[in-house]
Amino acid sequence: MDTKIIERIHKLLALSESSNSHEAELAMLKAQELLVKHKLSLKEVKEFKIVNSAIKENITKITFTKAKWKANLAQLIADNFSCYLFFKTRQTNTITFFGREEDITVCNIILEYAIDCISSAVKRLKYQYTREGYSTKGLENDYALGFIVGLAQKFEEQKRANQEWGLVLVKDKEVTEAYGQKKFKRSINTNPKYRGHAEVYKKGKEDGERFSISDKITQGDTEENLALVSGTTNT
Q1: Alpha helix (H) ranges present in 48-189?
Q2: Which is more confidently placed, 138 or 102?
Q3: Is the sign of the CA dihedral 130, 132, 133, 135 positive or negative?
Q4: How far apart are CA 130 and CA 3, in angstroms?
Q5: What whole-number distance in Å separates Cα of residue 147 and Cα of residue 151?
């Protein structure tokens, strides 16, 4: 049997027990659709033992103090790829993902790639603004905020276009339970303030909507890449 298909069906069956009747009905219909498509019985799926990957935390290379937009970007990615987010805080805040090993790997790859894309675009914009005699103060912040809004819209459009994709990306029950047992010392404020660069914000939003994730995830350099909201907790 294809383990990935079995895992998707298991997640859908779990969602079919949701208290949200619409979500439960949709999940069951999708599960039935996959059962028929892959010629599987409900009994076979329920009896198939899935060995889940380890639940762990991944302390990323991404840190911030004033650049709070990084926390917002990481939170958006975590929410859309089955992970939780918190911060390791000492002199600076270090972004940390929590979830299944394969999920946090994907989150880490996407976060680093998105930040690289943002940094490259901001570098070009700063060069242009400096040559024209305009202030670049707050430019990175506003471009990044626009990018995050655009990327969020991209994720929502993907979910609307493929409801099954949205359903199977819900957080694993065991991951949720494990995260609930973690103890956090305090909360930090990660709300960035818009600085007034309207054109830069618009450009960031357009780039966020066009951001391509699938190409990066499927590249062969995955191993090389392994090595938000006010009130978000930290340790």
Answers
A1: 69-80, 101-131, 139-161, 163-168, 173-180
A2: 138
A3: negative
A4: 54
A5: 6
- Which residues make Cβ contacts (< 8 Å) with residue 222, sequence separation at least 6? 105, 109
Identity of residue 114? A
**For 135-168, what is each residue's pLDDT tens digit?**
999 999 999 999 999 999 988 887 777 666 665 6
End-to-end alpha-carbon separation of the chain, Å?
Answer: 41
Tell me the two tokens of residue 144.
Answer: 């990044």
**With 50 as the cut, is the pLDDT of residue 197 above it?**
yes
208, 154 Cβ separation under 8 angstroms: yes
Contact between 228 and 80 (Cβ < 8 Å):
no
> Please, which residues bridge with residue 99 across strands?
56
Tokens standing for residue 107: 């989150």
**Residue-range domain boundaries for the chain:** 3-47, 55-234
User: Cα 228 to the chain's mean position, in Å?
Assistant: 12
DSSP-derived letter for residue 97 is: E
User: And the tokens for 141?
Assistant: 């912040």
